[in-house]
Automatic annotation (TrEMBL):
<dbReference type="InterPro" id="IPR003593">
    <property type="entry name" value="AAA+_ATPase"/>
</dbReference>
<keyword id="KW-0547">Nucleotide-binding</keyword>
<dbReference type="InterPro" id="IPR003439">
    <property type="entry name" value="ABC_transporter-like_ATP-bd"/>
</dbReference>
<keyword id="KW-0813">Transport</keyword>
<keyword id="KW-0067">ATP-binding</keyword>
<dbReference type="InterPro" id="IPR027417">
    <property type="entry name" value="P-loop_NTPase"/>
</dbReference>
<dbReference type="GO" id="GO:0005524">
    <property type="term" value="F:ATP binding"/>
</dbReference>
<dbReference type="Pfam" id="PF00005">
    <property type="entry name" value="ABC_tran"/>
</dbReference>
<dbReference type="InterPro" id="IPR005670">
    <property type="entry name" value="PstB-like"/>
</dbReference>
<protein>
    <submittedName>
        <fullName>Phosphate ABC transporter ATP-binding protein PstB</fullName>
    </submittedName>
</protein>
<keyword id="KW-0592">Phosphate transport</keyword>
<feature type="domain" description="ABC transporter">
    <location>
        <begin position="18"/>
        <end position="260"/>
    </location>
</feature>
<dbReference type="InterPro" id="IPR017871">
    <property type="entry name" value="ABC_transporter-like_CS"/>
</dbReference>
Length: 265
């Protein structure tokens, strides 16, 4: 086993989508992520929890190289997606982000029609051959995002004219339109009311049938509701990773216990 390469080991366990080994992230000279090792499973929702500033978003952004867009940010270590190093020189970050989609805290639809918001990704990646195929992808993505019935009669209206919850579901439709394998969600419900939050949570549960989902959340209730695995971060360290029920009922590390019982936050 020890003679196997990291790639071979990751491939052997087929259910592992991402394998991160000894990951460090620096902003200038300051180290925001320290020696993180984690396997992220396919067709599973993994929640990242932890106090503000502990590095949840920084680590999430490593998984689709969004940190590349921050000049002072440097990532070290190995991050393998299906056994392939996503930081390899031959990997095109734009192609990677089609495979590893992202939904942000604040809904950020493009200043375009509802249709064009969803059609944008498939168009730039050449995923459809004609208008009929594109129409199909737009409809199926909006259905997956539980938004189709609300917008099917106004696909030409601007995406920015939708309610906050609808805009976030539009962003989810946009992310799933390129048929990603992984969906990263950075506090996707923080700008939403409880009804829209419930809709997005329901959606996350459905999406896990097809994708690996990683969600950063400040809400422990949300982590408990939507995820099967939970990772607790503290001061840039991954303190504990386990089944969500175990993390919330029987944490192994005293820091995890302090956080979930509200003693550190
Ligand atoms: N663009 C940046 N430039 C410099 N430092 C940054 C940058 N982004 C984050 N950091 C620092 O990295 C550390 C981790 O931040 P990060 O946003 O990843 O934490 P977080 O756990 O997601 O926090 P929150 O829950 O408040 O969103 C913090 O100390 C933060 O100040």
């Amino acid at each position: 086993m020890n003679d196997m390469t990291l790639t071979e080991r990751a491939l052997e366990a087929t259910e592992i989508k991402f394998a991160a080994r000894d990951v460090q992230v620096y902003y200038g000279t300051s180290r925001a992520i320290k020696d993180v090792n984690i396997d992220i499973l396919d067709k599973t929702v993994t929640a990242f929890i932890g106090p503000s500033g502990c590095g949840k978003s920084t680590f999430l952004r490593c998984l689709n190289r969004m940190n590349d867009t921050i000049d002072v940010c440097r990532v070290e270590g190995d991050i393998l997606l299906d056994g392939e190093d996503i930081y390899d020189k031959k990997v095109d970050p734009v192609q990677l982000r089609a495979k590893v989609g992202m939904v942000f805290q604040k809904p950020n639809p493009f200043p375009k029609s509802i249709y064009d918001n969803v059609a944008y990704g498939p168009k730039i990646h050449g995923l459809t051959r004609n208008k009929a195929e594109l129409d199909e992808v737009v409809e199926s993505s909006l259905r997956k995002a539980a938004l189709w019935n609300e917008v099917k009669d106004r696909l030409d209206s601007p995406g920015t004219g939708l309610s906050g919850g609808q805009q976030q579901r539009l962003c989810i439709a946009r992310a799933v339109a390129t048929s990603p394998e992984v969906l990263l969600m950075d506090e996707p419900c923080s700008a939403l009311d409880p009804i829209a939050t419930a809709q997005v949570e329901e959606l996350i549960d459905e999406l896990r049938g097809n994708f690996s989902v990683v969600i950063v959340t400040h809400s422990m209730q949300q982590a408990a509701r939507v995820s099967q695995r939970t990772a607790f971060f503290h001061l840039g360290n991954l303190v504990e990773l386990g089944d969500t029920t175990q993390i919330f009922t029987n944490p192994k590390d005293p820091r995890t216990e302090s956080y979930i019982t509200g003693r550190i936050g």
